Amino acid sequence: MPADHPAVTPAPRGRRRSVGAVRSEASAAAILDAAEAILGEGGTAGFTIEAVARRARAGKQTIYRWWPNRAALLLDVYHRQKGADGVGYAGGSADDLARFVRDLWAFWRDTPAGRGFALVVAESQTDPAAAAALKDYFAQRRLDFAAAVAPPDADPEAVGVVHDLMTGFNLGRLLTGRIDDDPATIAAVARLLADALDRAGGVRPGSPSP
After folding, report:
1. pLDDT, tens digit, 9 for 90 and up, residues 12-47
2. Which of 31, 96, 159, 191 is most exposed, with the fewest beta carbons within 10 Å of its own?
């Protein structure tokens, strides 16, 4: 074989070929599909990068190139399923915020992905990789919240603080096992959050976050 045509080792039969550092949306979707299936079938106990790689017929290094750890992959699965279930920011009124909190708690209670999120939150207290993944996740949700509920002239830091207050309330309930539906408390908190958004510069209706 000529020197300028080096031999190429064929990809193993049945395995998706890597496209290098460029993320292939088809391969990423296949990996997320496999991760969702594993989470749905066996919960978090069987959710490993190795298991996802086998199910997706992908190399572990491909997964690690796009998701640096299990927590990051779990969070992507969680956000994907949450969006598919219609759990997202729909506006900044008290009713909108209360509906979001109730939908979120139900998702946490009733779905494997919701329980996977609780695991990431717990692991983040002792695992720096999980903590970093969760920090990145919440940073993006902060931006999504502002885009959905606040007009362009609102104080972005004040709107971000409202998001942080809502997140703190939700996580506090999650970590103490108090996410059964509690309409009165949720409505009271939602009114406080909506009032804080008004003070930040107004509220606009938005569309659910992706």
Report:
1. 334 444 434 556 888 899 999 999 999 999 999 999
2. 191
Distances (CA, A) of 169 to 48, 66, 71: 30, 31, 22
Domain boundaries, the chain: 24-67, 71-201
Sign of the Cα pseudo-torsion (96, 101, 102, 107, in order): positive
For 17, 27, 176, the CA distances from 12, given in Å and listed in that order, are: 8, 16, 47
Q: What is the pLDDT of residues 67-122, one digit of tens each?
A: 999 999 999 999 999 999 999 998 899 999 999 999 999 999 999 999 999 999 99
CA–CA gap between residue 149 and residue 26 (Å, rounded): 32
Question: Contact 98/89 with Cβ under 8 angstroms?
Answer: no
Name the fold adopted by 71-201: Tetracycline Repressor; domain 2 (1.10.357)
Nearest of 64, 69, 80 to residue 32 by alpha carbon? 80
Two structure tokens written together for 102? 């109730």
Nearest to 11 by CA among 2, 20, 21: 20
